[in-house]
Every structure is written in C-alpha cells, then in structure tokens.
Write a structure and sequence with these properties.
Helix content is about 15%, strand content about 35%. The chain has about 900 residues and is an alpha+beta fold. It folds into 4 domains: about 270 residues, Transferase(Phosphotransferase), domain 1; about 30 residues; about 250 residues, Neuraminidase; about 270 residues, 6 Propeller (Neuraminidase). The strands form 14 sheets. A 5-stranded antiparallel β-sheet has the order 1-2-3-5-4, with helices on both faces. Strands 26, 27, 28, 29 and 30 form a 5-stranded antiparallel β-sheet that branches. A 4-stranded antiparallel β-sheet has the order 9-57-32-31, with helices on one face. Helix 3 runs antiparallel to helix 6 and helix 5 packs antiparallel against helix 8. The termini are far apart.
Length: about 900
C-alpha cells in the first residue's frame, strides 16, 4: 500500500506537488506543497481518514466553500479544497513565521501591549466573520499564526464544517470540537449550537495565557479542565501581573463569564473595550472549587446575601452623606456605526464625520447611488441616516455653533445649507486650491487651511483673509470660544512629527503647544488630541493664557490617524465624544473595469500608498507608512514574498519603475532634510544610487519608455506649488523646465510612445487633467477632464488614458497619439470613492492589459464608530 505522501501526490498530480510533512494534529496532517497552477508554496491539510469517513465529503466541502469567502487581513484565506482518492483536503497560504503556540512555548509571557494587540486583531477577525454568520469554534494559540509580525487566524470554519458534517458522530473518532483549555462552558456541556459568545470566551482565554503564561483553567486531564471551566473562577490577571492595566483585566473577566449573555455582545464590542482605558467591569466573586452542588448553592446564596447587605449599607451611607449633592451625569458608550448600506466613505486627508454642538446628530461623508459621494446626517434617536440634498461631492463638513446649518467644501468652494434642508449657499467660490477641514467659530467665521496658511471668511460671505503667516502647512483648525484663537496642527513629514499649536485670534501669532496631531477644545478647560499611534488624550488647558497646564490622561486607543494626521474623532459642546476605532490599515485589491473587487493578499495589510506595477505586472512597488517613517517595498504578486527596498532615511516614497524593469526610482531624505531621487535594483542586491540631487526638494519621477528622458516634479513645499522638469539622459546635466508656473502641476506621466505628457494642474481653481507634447510642452495643450480630474495614468498598450474625475469615479478616455494627439470618447468605468486617492500622485495603477486596476482600500471588517456621552465627567474623575 503506498505511503500517504505518494498516494496524495498521485491523486493531486498536475495541481499540487507534495514536498514533505510539516506537522500532524488531531484533525489533520499538514504538508508543504507546490501550487503548480500559481507557482507558489502552500500548506495543504488533509483530514484524518477516520474523521473524513465519519464527516462525509459533500457536507464538509459545502461548509468549507462558505468560509472560503472570508477576506480579512487577520484571517488566513482558504485557497482551495476538495476530495482526492478519498482524502478530504483544504489548501491555505504558507505562513513564513510561527504560531502563537510556538511563541508562547518559547517566551511563556508576552509584553502587555503586544498581547493586547494580538487579542484585538483576533477579535476584529472574529467580529468580521460573526457578522457574516460564521463562528470559528476552535480559537487557540495553535490556530493563530504570526505572519510578518501580524496575527492571522487559521483553520477558519474548519470546526463548523466538521460540526455540520457529523458532529454527532465525532465521539466515534475520539475527537471533540474545541480544545479543552479554550472551550466555553456551553461547549464543555456538549452544546453544538454555539454562537459568537463562544469565540469571545476563547479570545479571553488566549489573552489570559498571553499575559499570565498559562490558560485560565488547567488540569491534569481534559476532564479536569472541563470540570474547572464549569465550577471555578480564574485568578485576576492584574493580581498575577501588576503591569496589566485594570481595563484589560476587566475585559478578560467579562469575556470569561459563565453565561454567554453576560459576555460581550459581540467581538467588536470586545475590541472597543480593549482600546478603552476607562472600561470597567464588576469585581469577580470566586466560587468554591470543591463540595457538593447543594453546598455550593448555599454558599453562593450566603455570599450573595452578605454582599447585598454590605452594598445596601454602603449605599445608605453614601446616600446620607451626598443627599444634598446633585448626581453627576452618567457616562455611557454606544456603538453608532452606520448601517452597512449607509457606510462612511473615507476621504484621504480629513476627518470623515462631525458631531452637532448638542451631540444629537452626526454628519458624515457617504456614498450616493450614482457612484459619487455626498453628506449623510443621522439623528441619534433614529436608526437610519438620510442623505443631504445639495451636498454632492462634498468633502469635509462642520455644524454651525447653533447646530442649525452645515458648512462643507466641494471642489475648492465653501458652501452652507440648513440642516433641515434647502438650497446650498456659496460662501466662497472655488479657486486657489482645496480648503482643508473647516471650523465654524462662534465669532461667525469659517476657518480652513489653504496651502501654508490658516484662512478665515465670514459665514455670510465676503473676502477671505489670512489669519496666520506661513511657518508651515497648517491644518485641522478648531475655533476657541469668543474668538480667542484657533487650535491648529503644523504638519510634519508624517503624523509623528506633527505639532499642535494655537493661533492668537487677534494677532494671528502661532505658538506651539505639544507634539501630537489634531486638537479639539473641550469646555470648560481641556484639550483633546491624538498621537500618531492612535491614542486619544486629554490635557488641562487654560483658555485665558492659551497654555496646556497639566499632564494628559488617555481616553481611548486604536483611533485611526490618516497619513495627513487627521485623527478620526469629534467633540460636541454638550460633552459628547465621537471616535472611530480600527480601520487604520489598508489592503491592496484588483478592481475590474466594471468595479468587481478581488483582494490581492489579505494577509498583507499595512498603510499603503502610491502603488506602481512593473511593466509585466508581476511585481509591485509601493510605499508603506508606519508611525515614524515610510519606506518603499517591492512585492511579487499576488501572494509572493515582499522586500523592504529603501533602508536609509525615514521618508522614502513615490516609487516608479525604470524602463527595463530591473530597478525602482523613489524620493528619499537619506542625505538630509530635503528630498533627492534615488534608484535601486528591485531585488535589493545593490545600494541605492543617487539619481538626481537638486537644491529644491524633489518628489515624483517618471521615465520615458525608452529611457532617453527622466521626468521629475519638485515638491509642493510650503508655498503649495509644484513644477515639472525633464533631464535628457546622456545629454546636458541641466534639467529643462516643462511646466513651470504659479500653479501646482502634479502627476507628470509620459505616454507609452514617449511623445506626450499627461499631468494635473489647478490653474482654473481646481485640479484638471491636461496633455501636452513631450518634451516641447509649450507647443500645445489639451484639456482632458471636465468638472475636475486627478491621477492620470496611460494604458500601457496605448489607446486609453485613465483618471479620476471630480466625482471620484474612474474614467477612461479613448486617445490617439499619432500623427497628433486626439482625445475621444470619455466613459465612466466604476465608482472609486471607496479607494484611496491623492491629488499629489496616483494612488492606483493599471495592469499591463488595462483590464483591471491595482487600488488601495481600507481594510475590511474592523472599523466602528463609538459615541461617549458625558465623557467629561469621567475625565474629571481621572484627572
């Protein structure tokens, strides 16, 4: 009889080549295999024969197909499944790392922050699956893999497939669904109809073990473990490890409640609690570990009566001593995440929502039926949001101080309209570039960032005026009461270098306060602001002196901060806090010409920007941002290995491929504060070579297809301008100006035949796409876009030019490039508001055949919106 490897190899011949066994467990044997169709290494798992016989192939594979649809950055995807020579198998990516079980066996305990981060990621993955009706049922350290430092949950749905296929007969194999140390009480009693609470319990057990070094329930036999799960209580993790924050201990205690209904209502709620330093839960009561059930019941009753008497006595004493004191307002937290069919449409640079002054309404940027975006408003006493007519393509929005009106920016213009409905009124016409993040002061002024200044205009209309000079890019204003001043953020190269400052309301003098990003004033005397890692803080602030007067306290963690520094939170005058959680990372996707989305590598989730495909479409160069740096990476598509290409300097970006496809050119600050252009082999085998060094800071670059010209753009800099130059290779060392004006010329892109150059300019007051001859750019000019356009890219085979229009749609323009340039029919391909965009440089690329586009979208399934009522009361207690 052939050995299992030979039998499997023969059965899967032509599809997979089995190399060797990687491991063996109670349910499956894992093999390292070559996926012959896709040229990749995979982990091929074969169900144990005796288990497969009991389960049955048809039902098992039917359930596996359901779970294969899960696409989440913290879920290991399922590539394939099937039956071969009577063997049931399923195929998953090969993770080049270790399991959490292996790491625990080596280190025993993890740092607190790392343990919480892993548990949060796992709970996010579970919440995503639960909302799709799928329960894992077997969460344990062995099923959590560490890939590129990020946890991914494996074997998702395998347990439910086994359950559907024959859970009632699993005892015949000697197996059970779940691992004893992480089984919930309902699993321990044999209940197979378990829900999300079972997975919540398991995450609590895993987090407990990560912090303490062993599971909450242990025993010499599986039966002993199950008995303790049903009858005893674990010791508090804080008591065993003093460095564990009290809110983490509270999360674990709630997750490990015996009754499923007493646990978190969802894994998403558990995620939010892990990110909330103020989360609390009842003090645990330790149950007796021994004795008969009747004695345990009497002891529990005695303890309960004693505790009740004690609480009554304490309550009476407190009531007598505080009878004349008003009851402080209660702090309450609510999940107000919009419905799945009314989602927030994230923007690139600003805050995605605003809160009314009385804290009863939320306005946010969302989709509209024709594919663009518009504002939506939700009254918190209603379950549904409603679209706001007249706000099509609006970007940032803000309520008036009385809450009766909205102000918003669209296409560089500022408009207002009543919340109850009515035609919009233009306060300031388009021109001079986009207005960033509006603030509406009680002095009747609208404040906004414009290039390197803070500008204001009366909400009734009039001429705008600069409040500040030009010390640097100024964003995210918040008008202080009575016109005393304006809080603002001075942008650094990345969010960790942002500084919060205040501009005097009279003189406009700017004074820095602290290193952080996006501050909001909370009356009667606090600043609420964010750090680059997404921690929301509050510090005492003296309004009369405009100074921070004390240390901060943490309000929440895990608040998304965009690369621009926009932290996703808002405040109301009434003492209500609104903030987002999760959603910080992004994922790479293929999008067809009709808008069908296909994830590229869900396990590879980072803050991506500015992707560039190699000429053959098999490799990707992309920028990845962290809290303190950004670097260029190269990845083999779709699920191949990745390599950090840039290693020097802390700011590297805007990658472009050389014509021969061997190297990548990018900007870097490795030689000093200014940006120069470097080229490095894509396999990382050489040092980066200085391509161009200029006194002016450099940004984008592109090569003519034959390599004869090198095109580059200067950085927009403090004045907000960019100019385009070209350098002939093998000719003069002096660049020639192609596009040099008082306006911002961006995204220069040579055509495939090297005769034309596409770019964007704001010369009309808003960005539009243009084409000029190359290199004789002054000889002619064609306007390509209508009503706004950005991020032009040529189809590699010629015949088409792509761009995004002012409604955030992907547009194709039919073009002829010989004997002269002719722009033909325009057609909208698909709505693109859900995908990352950027006026400065394309945030997508087209495949070599132009049949699909590589784009960036927020990572799915882990974003929530949290409303905290009376958060100031909690803040006063903790200050």
């Amino acid at each position: 009889m052939p050995d299992p490897v030979s039998r499997l190899s023969a059965a899967l011949s032509g599809r997979y080549r089995i190399e060797r066994e990687l491991g063996r467990g109670g349910m499956a044997t894992v093999y390292l295999a070559d996926d012959l169709r896709h040229g990749r290494k995979v982990a091929l798992k074969v169900l144990q024969p005796e288990l497969a016989a009991v389960v049955g192939a048809e039902r098992f594979l039917a359930e596996i197909r359901i779970t294969a649809k899960l696409q989440h950055p913290h879920i290991l995807p399922l590539h394939d499944s099937g039956e071969a020579d009577g063997l049931l198998f399923y195929v998953m990516p090969l993770v080049e790392g270790e399991s959490l079980r292996e790491r625990l066996d080596r280190e025993r305990q993890l740092p607190v922050d790392e343990a919480v981060r892993i548990a949060t990621a796992v709970a996010q993955a579970l919440d995503y699956a639960h909302r799709r009706g799928i329960i894992h049922r077997d969460i344990k350290p062995a099923n959590i893999l560490i890939h590129d430092g990020e946890p991914v949950v494996s074997d998702f749905g395998i347990a439910i497939a086994l359950s559907a296929g024959g859970a009632g007969r699993l005892t015949e194999t000697g197996l059970s669904l779940g691992t004893p140390h992480y089984m919930s009480p309902e699993q321990a009693t044999g209940d197979t109809s378990v829900g999300p609470a079972t997975d919540v319990w398991a995450v609590g057990c895993v987090l407990y073990e990560l912090l303490v070094g062993e599971p909450p329930y242990t025993g010499s036999t599986p039966q002993a473990v199950l008995g303790r799960i049903l009858t005893s209580e674990p010791e508090s993790v804080t008591a065993m490890r003093r460095s564990v924050p009290s809110h983490v201990d509270a999360v674990i205690r709630r997750a490990l409640e015996k009754v499923p209904a007493d646990r978190f209502a969802s894994a998403g709620e558990m995620v939010r609690a892990l990110g909330d330093p103020g989360f609390g839960y009842a003090v645990p009561v330790v149950a007796p570990a021994a004795g008969d059930s009747r004695a345990r019941r009497w002891k529990a009753l005695a303890l309960g009566l004693g505790a009740t008497a004690l609480l009554l006595a304490v309550g009476l004493a407190l009531a007598l001593t505080t009878l004349s004191r008003p009851e402080p307002p209660a702090v309450a937290r609510f999940d107000v995440t919009p419905r799945i069919d009314q989602p927030i449409a994230p923007g690139e640079t600003d805050v995605d929502f605003a809160l009314s002054p009385d804290g009863t309404r939320i306005v946010y940027r969302g989709p509209r039926p024709d594919g663009g975006t518009q504002l939506w408003i939700r009254a918190l006493d209603q379950l549904d949001a409603v679209p706001v007519a007249g706000t099509e393509d609006a970007q940032s929005a803000v309520f008036s101080p009385d809450g009766r009106s909205l102000a918003f920016e669209v296409g560089g213009a500022i408009r207002t309209l009543p919340v109850t409905g009515g035609p919009p009124v233009t306060v300031l016409a388009a021109g001079g570039g986009p207005r960033h993040t509006l603030a509406w002061g009680d002095d009747g002024m609208l404040y906004f960032g414009l290039d390197a200044r803070l500008v204001r205009v009366r909400s009734s209309g009039g001429e705008p005026e600069a409040l500040t000079a030009e010390p640097g890019l100024q964003r995210f204003p918040d008008a202080l009461p009575e016109g005393r001043g304006v809080l603002l953020t001075l942008l650094g190269a990345y969010p960790a270098l942002n500084r919060i400052a205040v501009a005097d309301g009279s003189s406009g003098e700017v004074r820095e306060l602290l290193t952080a990003t996006m501050a909001r004033y909370a009356a009667p005397g606090h600043l609420v602001y964010a750090t680059a890692d997404g921690t929301l803080l509050a510090a005492p602030f003296e309004l009369s002196s405009l100074e921070v007067t004390g240390p901060p306290v943490a309000l929440a963690r895990g608040v998304p901060v965009k690369p621009s520094g926009a932290a996703q939170f808002a405040l109301s005058k009434s003492g209500t806090l609104l903030y987002a959680t999760g959603g910080s990372s992004s994922e790479l996707v293929w999008v067809s010409r009709t808008g069908v989305v296909e994830p590229i590598d869900p396990s590879w989730a980072h803050v991506f920007s500015h992707p560039a495909l190699s000429a053959d479409g098999r490799r990707l160069a992309v920028t990845i941002r962290s809290e303190t740096s950004m670097h260029v990476w190269v990845k083999q598509l779709d699920r191949g290995p990745s390599l950090q290409l840039s290693v020097d300097g802390d700011l590297n970006g805007y990658p472009s491929w050389t014509p021969d496809g061997t190297s990548v050119t990018f900007f870097s600050n490795r030689a000093g504060p200014s940006f120069d252009l470097y080229t490095k082999r894509a396999d990382g085998s050489t040092q980066a070579v200085l391509e161009l060094d200029e006194e002016r800071a450099l940004a984008e670059s592109a090569w003519a297809p034959d390599g004869s010209w090198f095109v580059f753009r200067t950085d927009r800099g403090e004045a907000g301008q960019g100019n385009v130059f070209a350098l002939r290779r093998g000719g003069s060392d002096e660049p020639i100006p192609l596009l040099e004006s008082a306006f911002a010329e961006l995204s220069p892109t040579p055509s495939p035949d090297g005769r034309w150059l596409a770019y964007t300019s704001n010369e009309t007051g808003r960005e539009e796409v243009y084409v000029v001859p190359f290199p004789d750019a002054g000889a002619a000019k064609w306007v390509i876009s209508i009503g706004g356009g950005s991020e032009p890219i040529w189809a590699r085979g010629g015949g088409e030019l792509f761009y995004r229009n002012g409604r955030a749609e992907m547009v194709s323009v039919q073009v002829e490039t010989s004997p002269t340039f002719v722009a033909g029919e325009r057609s909208v391909l698909f709505p693109a508001s859900r995908f990352r965009s950027d006026l400065n440089h394309p945030q997508y690329d087209a495949s070599p055949d132009a049949e699909r586009f590589l784009m960036i979208q927020p990572a799915a399934g882990d974003a929530s919106l949290v409303l905290v009522v009376n958060f100031l009361a909690e803040l006063r207690e903790r200050s």
